[in-house]
Records
---
Amino acid sequence: MSHSFSTLDELRALLADQPAMDEGSYAEAAAHNGQLTKPPGALGRLEDLALWYRGWRGGDRTEIAHPQVIVFAGNHGVAARGVSAFPAEVTAQMVLNFQHGGAAINQLARMNGARMDVVALDLERPTEDFTQAPAMSEQDFLTALQAGWDAVDGAADLLVVGEMGIANTTSAAALACALLGGDAADWTGRGTGVDDAGLKLKSEVVAEGVALHGGKGDGLETLRRLGGRELAAMAGAMVRARSLRIPVILDGFICSSAALALAHTHEGALDHAVAGHLSAEDAHRPLLKALGKEPLLQLGLRLGEGSGAALAIAVMKGAMACHAGMATFAQAGVSDA
Amino acid sequence: MSHSFSTLDELRALLADQPAMDEGSYAEAAAHNGQLTKPPGALGRLEDLALWYRGWRGGDRTEIAHPQVIVFAGNHGVAARGVSAFPAEVTAQMVLNFQHGGAAINQLARMNGARMDVVALDLERPTEDFTQAPAMSEQDFLTALQAGWDAVDGAADLLVVGEMGIANTTSAAALACALLGGDAADWTGRGTGVDDAGLKLKSEVVAEGVALHGGKGDGLETLRRLGGRELAAMAGAMVRARSLRIPVILDGFICSSAALALAHTHEGALDHAVAGHLSAEDAHRPLLKALGKEPLLQLGLRLGEGSGAALAIAVMKGAMACHAGMATFAQAGVSDA
C-alpha cells in the first residue's frame, strides 16, 4: 500500500481507520504461553511482550528476523538561539557518521541484526525558529511525514525510529509542554549537556514557543508548529508501521514527543508501540506516563539516534525466542505444578 | 590452570589471592570512551559497563564473542518438607529439557550466541534436609564447588551461571537470612509460586535452618550447611571465572545468594560480577543491595536457569559493541561540544 498525503486531514482520517490488535492471535499466544515449561508468569514482562507482539503482528507470526532502524535527521531554526551544547553543523556531520557506520546506533543495530536506514531531511534548510513562526509550513510538514511513511520497509517485523537534530530536545520539550501543560522548566532538560545558563535560556525559549503556539490545534498541528522535520518523519513512520502491523519500539524523549503528537490526535494511535527505555532526560518519565508506557530498559542513556530502542530490540527478540522456541510441558515430559 | 580443592581452606586462600582489576586497561578504556562520537556520558550505564568489562578482562580485549552459560542442577532434601509448588522430579525433567534445547535459557543463550552447558549434580542423591543436618558434608561440598570450577570454559569471555533445583529458593532464603540477619519471613518469597499456606511453611522451614546453622562459620561454611550442590557449583564457577579474568553476570535470587556466600568469605570476591537483573522475588532487592550491585534489567523475571542474566548478555554486548565499534570525533570529523 503506497500512499501520498496532500492534506493533514487525510492523515487524521487514516489515524481513525488503522488496524486493531488481532484478538485471535493474542488469545492463541496466551494459550500457548500457558503451556510452556516454566511456572506461570515466571518470565515476567517477556510474556506480556510476546502476547502484545503476536496480537499486533497478527496471524501466527512469531519471528523477529527483520528489525529495521531508521534514523531521521533535521535541522532546527531554534538552534540559532544557542539552546544546544553542540553547533548546528553536527547534525550533518553525524549523518555522515551514520552512513559510514561509526555511530552508537550503527553498532546497536548491527548487534541485533537490524537493517539501518538514514534519512536526512533538507538539512541545508532548517525549520523556522518556533519562537517567531510555526516551525514548518503545512507543505513542509506533509513532506517530512511522507518521508517517514516511505522509509518503512514493508518486510520489517519490528521498527525503531531514531533521530539526530541539534536543538531537537528544545522542540520536544515545547511539544510536550504544549500538549500536556505545566511549566516549560518542567519539560526542559540538559539534552546533550548544556550548562546552567544554557538550561535557563532553553527553558525560556520553550516557554516562548508554547506561548506562541500552544492550544492552536491538535497533536499534529502542534507538531507542525513546534516540532521539526525529523520528529514529523518519525510520526509518519509510526503511522505507516501501524498500517503494516509492524510493532514499534519507542526511543527516548524526542521520539516519545513525536509519538505523543499522534496519541493526542487519535487515542490509541500508539497502541502498537512499546517504550524501549527511560532516558536520563528527566522529562521523559512524565512523557511516558502520559503515553501510558512502561520502559523496557533504564540504563541512563540520553543519546537519541534510536539507541535505547535499538538495544531493546534484544529484549523483544528474547521474548519471542522464548515464546516460539520453548517446549511445552507435554512435549518435554515435565510435570506441571 | 587446573586446580583441585582438597580442603575449604585452600579455597579461602585462593579467594584472597585472585586477580584484581587491570587499572591500565580501565584507564585506557576511559580515555578511548571520551573520544567517541557522542556527548559525554550519553550512553549512560553502557559506558560504565564497557570500562568495567575492559578493566576486569584486562589487556586490550574488547570483544564479547564467546559468552558461556552454565546451568547447574541439584536436588534438595528440604524439598520433602513441601516448600515448592512443583514436585522434586521436575529437577531431572528440566535437565532433560535443557539438554534437548526446550527451556527458556536455551532460547536466550542461543539468541546471544552463547555456548550452553548443563551440569547435573548427583540428582539421585539430594542434599540433607537442612532443618536436620548440614545440607552437605565437606567432601560433597568440595565436589560440587569443583564441578563448578571445572565447568568454566577457559576460552569464554563472559560467564552466566544459572540453576535448577526444586526447593532452592528455600536454600537461598536461608543462606541470605543467616548471612545478613533479619527475619526468615523477610527473605522468603513465593519462588515458583507457592500459595499463602506454602509461603508460611516455607518461612518456618527457613527459620528452622537458620536457627540450626546460622553463625556457625563464614560464607562458605554457611553455604555448605544451608545451600545445595548447584549453589556450591555456581560459587565454584564464579571463583574460576575470576581466576581467568572472565567477567560474570549474576542471575536472580539463588545465584545472588551463592555470590553472597563468596562475598562474605572474602570482601571484593564478586567485583568481577555485575547483576544481570532484578528478580520478581522480593528479597532479591535487599540481597543485591548487600552485594552492592545495581541490576541491569528489571523485567519481573523469576525463573532462574540463568535466564535474566542470559538476556543481560545483550546489554553487555551492546556496551562493548559501542565501545569497540564507534568512531572517534577525529575519525568521523564531528565537531566536539
Note: Chain A touches chain B through 60 residues (CB under 8 Å).
---
Amino acid sequence: MRYALILAGGSGSRMGSLTPKQFLKISGIPIIAWSMMTFQRMNEIVGIIIASPKDRFPEIKKIAEDYQITKLRAIATGGETRQISSYHALRAYEFHDDDIVLIHDAARPFVSEALARRCLNAAEESTAACAYIPVKDTIAEIENNLVRRTLDREILQSAQTPQVFRYSLIRDAHEYAITRGFQSASDDVTLVLLRGKPVYSVEGDYRNIKITTPEDMALAEYLAHALRGEQR
Amino acid sequence: MRYALILAGGSGSRMGSLTPKQFLKISGIPIIAWSMMTFQRMNEIVGIIIASPKDRFPEIKKIAEDYQITKLRAIATGGETRQISSYHALRAYEFHDDDIVLIHDAARPFVSEALARRCLNAAEESTAACAYIPVKDTIAEIENNLVRRTLDREILQSAQTPQVFRYSLIRDAHEYAITRGFQSASDDVTLVLLRGKPVYSVEGDYRNIKITTPEDMALAEYLAHALRGEQR
C-alpha cells in the first residue's frame, strides 16, 4: 500500500508571519490543502498522514472536511526539527514493512500527480527515490565570512519532495540516526544515505517550489493561476 | 575608480525564448536596463562596461540612449562561457591596476544600491567580495541518477552578483585560469579562489533574483511592482 506523509511542522520564521506558512492561502486555498487534494485524487495513494504543530490539529481537520480529504488517516505532532516531524508521522499509523511512504513538505503546494508518480515508481523499483532539480547558482562553502571554496555545479542538485521509501527502510534509517544523536537532517534522503543505503534521483519540476519567503508567495499566486489555466 | 561590468553574454536556453533573457522586458523595461540604471544612479561608479553577443550591440546602445546611461564606456563581445564574457569585459577598457570592478549578471535586475555598496566597501577593504544568500534546499551530489551524498547545508551559500574585485587581482586570476585551460567557471569568485586569494562574503538579498526560467519572469513582475511602491 502507498501512503502520503505531509510534513507541516515548521514555524515559517523566514516568512515574517505569525501564521505558519503552510496555513497561508494561495488563490484562497491553504497551502497544505493543495498537496492534500493532489494525493486525495491519486488512486494509488490509500492514506494521508500529516505532521503538524499540536495547536493546529483542529485546523487540519477542518481543512480535510472543507476539501473532502477522505483519505486522512492520522495527524502526528510536529517535532522540534523536520527530521523529528517526519519520524512522528512514520509512527502515527500502523504501516506494514513493505508499504511505500511518500514524504512531502507541506510548503510545496504544486507537486504534480505526474511527479509524485515518477517518485513512487522509482522507489518501488529500488526502495528509495527523491525528486531533484539542477542548482541554478554557484554554491560555496562559507565560514566566518570567508569563502572557503565553490563547489562543482555540474554534479550538484537541489532536493525537492516527494521523497519516497519502502517503510521498513525509512523507519530503520530514522531509528539509526536517532540512536546516534542525529536529529537535524534537512531531508529524509540524508538519513537513508547515513544508513548506507542507495537513493535514486528522479527529475523534479521547477514549478514544485518551496514557499519560504514572502517573495515565494507572489510566485505561488502566479503558478496557481497558470496551473488552473492548464487544467481547464 | 570604481566600474560596473554587466555580463549579458548568455543565450538564455532555459527560458524557452528566442530573445536572450537579458533583453526581455519587466514592467516594460528590458532586464539589462534595470541594473544599468542602478549603476548609473550610483555616484561612486564612474563607468559601465557591458559584455553582450555581438549582434546585440545596437540594442545595447539603444537601451543606453533610451535610459540615459551616460556612463557606458565600452561594449565587449560575449564569449562561449560566462568566464570568457567576463574576461572580455575586463579587457574592453583601460583599467588601472588599483581600480575596483563590480561584476554583475544582467539577469539580476533587482540589485539594490545598498547591496552594490556593501560589496564595493567589502572589496575595497579586502580586495575581493561577493554577495551570498543561505541555500533553502538540501543540496546533493548526484551521479548517474544515484545520490552520492547530501551536503552540510549550514555552511553552504548561493552566490549572487555583484562580485567585486581589485582590477589587478581579477585580471590576474582570469589569466591564471586561462593558461591552465580552465574556461567554465560559473562565477568570478571561483577564479580568485583557484588563484589562492581570499574572497569575503557579503549578505545578499532574496530580491536580487536571477532570471532563468519563465516562472522567474512572473516573480520579477511582482518584485518590479513592489520595488516601485517602495520608491514612491
Note: DSSP finds seven helices and eleven strands in chain B.
